[in-house]
Amino acid sequence: MVSFKFLLIFILLLLSELIFAQYDFNENCKKAYSDIISLKFEEGKKLIEIEKSQNPENNIPYLLENYVDFLTIIVGEEEDTFEKLKSNKILRINRLSEGNKSSPYYRYCLANVYLQWAFARIKFGEYFTAVFEINKAYHLLEQNQKLFPEFLPNYIGLGLLHALIGTIPDNYKWLTKLAGMDGSISQGINELTLVLDSATDNSNYEFLKPESLFFLSFIELNLKSNKKEALKLMDRFKNYDNDNLLICFSKASILKRTGNNDKAIEVLLSRPETNEYFPFFYLDYLTGLAKLNRLDNDACNYFFNYIQNFKGSNYIKSAYQKIAWFYLIKSDKKKYKEYISRVLRIDDKSMVDADKQAVIEAESDEIPNVYLLKAQLLFDGGYYQKAIDILKEEISKNDLKTAKDSLEYNYRFGRIYHEWGKVEEAIPYYEITLISGAGFPYYFAANSALQLGLIYENKLEFDKAKYYYKKCLSLKFKEYKTSISQKAKAGLNRVENKK
Question: Is the model more confident about 19 or about 469?
């Protein structure tokens, strides 16, 4: 009997060792993960090969290899690379599917592979397969949470998915319900914050902090559009220098979007640019934007670098537009025309708003009002006083040669005062823009109505808010229509039954 008990204990210990060996996120793997998240792919891959050699049963290296493929595709945005790496997905799924299902890492690893390839496919328009993979990842992570509620890594992917699902308009929510998927932005933020807080307190999970910080920054800036909450995250970045390019991107994005443009430029200029990092050329574009917002004399150099080096399609048209703007504010209309015309020579599949706007400007064959352009650029950089000074001191009525110029003049006053926190001064300018611009195809009137709705919603004057949201939705315009209309619909949903 004693020998039988001993044998049983021995077998159980052996099985637990086997399970652990299959999913050993050891120090070697943590270091590889950290290098990969920092975009030091070659260093990460060396550690992966060492781990494979030393622990051939360990499945974690195959998850880490997928991170390399995913970030290579998302950061590089080269379709040829995407096509070349696509076949790796099924190889990793097959390997990970053979793992032990009693480990919390089993479903977690599979879900991450599915989720990462879904996002990669969305980048290149493979939406049908991406939807299937997102659904697969969601249900794997949900099941894993029920089985292992204390398993912290699970909440990164789950938090991101819950937040993304929360952005789906109400009239499409039935589709996610049909797929058995649910979530909200606040739920996603809470889950990612849980990871961040726990990783801060528990050194075993400290390696998860950069990824959770990156996704939290993305959600606050792009899904929730909460600049104050995004700025609070800067305290979380204090222990990170600029040797992680994803963290550098997050920090610079937060600083730029919250009116701290000078600090954003400092972060971007201090980033490492050595060969040990996978090239993140979008940071050149972002540096060019930040410097153009400050009206720096070398801003165009960064756009040229981006155009020359980046092999994807997004923001190339926008970069040419920004170079054209650079020369326009230098009073060189000939070079403005030269570079804005290049926008129409590019035949690509870019769907980002910045490129669409560049095309609209190039096709219009109208040269922007240089004073309004300067005010817009300074406003985008958070230089509110300088922007107001241009509107008040440098522009005369004779400079406003078109109806569009007159509309934008009042609109810029409203936007600057609003973002500056001078809401009462912004309101009359929004009202003038709305009344004067309702019959034009420009976005100025519609966005003024939206901003008035937001102002009165914050004042708890819900009837007024409702009026302006409905007014926004009633206007006919082309620029930024999807974004503005979605925000107005969301606002109307919030205040519909409030008094």
Answer: 469
The answer to whether residues 275 and 133 belong to one domain is yes
> In terms of domains, do 373 and 354 share one?
no
Last residue of a domain, one of 334, 366, 398: 366
411 shares its domain with 360:
no
Are 141 and 148 spatial neighbours (Cβ–Cβ below 8 Å)? no
What's the average model confidence in pLDDT over 483-496?
83
Same domain, 214 and 75: yes
Residues belonging to the chain: 499
**Can you tell me the distance from the alpha carbon of 444 to that of 413, in angstroms, rounded to the nearest whole number?**
12
Domain encompassing residue 405 = 369-499
8-state DSSP, 475: -
- In b/e form, how buried is each residue of 450-472, taking b as 16+ CB within 10 angstroms? bbbbbbbbeeeebebbbbbbebb
Residue with tokens 């003024």: 448
Domain end (from 281, 315, 331): 281
CA angle 383, 389, 395 (to 5 degrees): 125
Residue 394: CB atoms within 10 A of its CB come to 12
Burial degree of 263 (CB within 10 A; 0-12, 13-18, 19+): middle
User: CA 303, CA 326: separation in Å to the nearest integer?
Assistant: 10
Residue 243 lies in a domain: yes
Question: Hunting for tokens 């810029």 — which residue is that?
Answer: 412
Local confidence band at 14 (pLDDT 50, 70, 90 cut-offs) = very low
Same domain, yes or no: 215 and 305: no
What gap in Å lies between CA 464 and CA 86, rounded to an integer? Answer: 52
Angle at 303 between CA 301 and CA 305, to 5 degrees: 70
Sign of the alpha-carbon dihedral angle for 18, 20, 26, 29: positive
Cβ pair 475, 453 in contact under 8 A: no
Any residues with CB less than 8 A from the CB of 182 and at least 6 apart, and which? 162, 165, 176
In angstroms, the Cα distances linking 154 to 102, 115, 472 are 15, 12, 41
Residue type, 236: R
Q: For residue 276, what is the DSSP state? A: T
pTM over 0.85: yes
Q: Are 422 and 384 in contact (CB under 8 A)?
A: no
pLDDT above 90 as % of the chain: 74
Helix (H, G, I), strand (E, B) or coil at 39: coil
Task: Say if residue 477's pLDDT is above 70.
Answer: yes
Query: From the centroid of its chain, how far is CA 80?
Result: 23
Q: What gap in Å lies between CA 430 and CA 50, rounded to an integer?
A: 62
Give per-residue pLDDT as tens, 162-212. Answer: 998 887 766 667 778 778 888 888 899 999 999 999 988 888 889 999 999
